Sequence to fold (70 residues):
Amino acid sequence: MSDVVDVRVRSLRRQVDTLRRAATTPTGVFEAIDEVIRNFRRANKETVSALTRGGFRLPSLSSIRRRLRW
Fold:
């Protein structure tokens, strides 16, 4: 679980750096928004990777559907 926390802290730092850079350098608004979205997606991928590395498996969509059918 500490891996997940580390991933989220790193992603938060990336987001802060992105926003700081957008505020101090002359970049376009859409470029900054695009980078924020890319950072968010990267953080989510890294979080899922950290969860599956630790032995925790996310259920597949088909197994969820089977459970819901009863």
The chain has one domain: 2-69. DSSP finds three helices and no strands in the chain.
